[in-house]
Amino acid sequence: MASQRVKLLFDENISRRLVEFVNRESALAEMAHLTQRGWGGLPDRDWIARATERGFVIVSGDRNERTRGYTVADLKEMQARVLLLARFWDHLSRWERAKWLVAHIERLVEVAQQMPTGSVYLIYKRGRCRVL
After folding, report:
1. Running DSSP on this structure, what letter comes out for residue 130?
2. Where in the sequence is the domain holding 110, given as residue range(s)?
3. Is 108 part of a structural domain of the chain?
4. CATH number, domain with residue 87
5. Are 39 and 47 in contact (CB under 8 A)?
6. Residue 36 burial by CB count (10 A; 0-12/13-18/19+): exposed, middle or buried?
7. CA distance linking residue 5 with residue 69, whole number of Å
8. End-to-end CA distance of the chain
9. What backbone torsions phi and psi does residue 58 show, to the nearest 5 degrees?
């Protein structure tokens, strides 16, 4: 039985144009931006639930539980699969973010393919990851 192609959903703190470019040029996974699904502006809990129901692994640079309004435990309880980009992401320019994503998209796909439901991983600058 062939494995199903992984689906990545990028949230609003990652450029939609960047996601579109990487998706078009890599063809490694089904990639979408939150706004492409019409979920931009929805409360996080709502779009996360929709993304999870549709089998997406969420990629986000938003690690701040205070401003987000939900915790890692909440994400696990929602049965979400989430890749959180570590603190390095906040300090990259738009160009550096583009270069990083292009250089590491294969690693993100690899990690996403192996994630069990209800798991949250922190992704570091060099592509290493840690289960939260």
Report:
1. E
2. 7-131
3. yes
4. 3.40.50
5. yes
6. middle
7. 31
8. 31
9. -90, 135
Q: Are 115 and 81 in contact, with CB atoms under 8 Å apart?
A: yes
Interatomic CA distance for residues 23 and 52, integer angstroms: 20
Cα separation of 85 and 89, whole Å? 6
How many Å is the Cα radius of gyration of the chain?
14
In this structure, the strands spanning 119-123 and 129-131 are antiparallel
Helices 16-26/94-113 angle, 10° precision = 50
For residue 69 the two structure tokens come to: 């309004």
Residue-wise pLDDT tens for the chain (132 aa)? 445 789 999 999 899 999 999 999 998 999 999 999 999 989 888 999 999 999 999 999 887 665 566 788 999 999 999 999 999 999 999 999 999 999 999 999 999 999 999 999 999 999 999 999
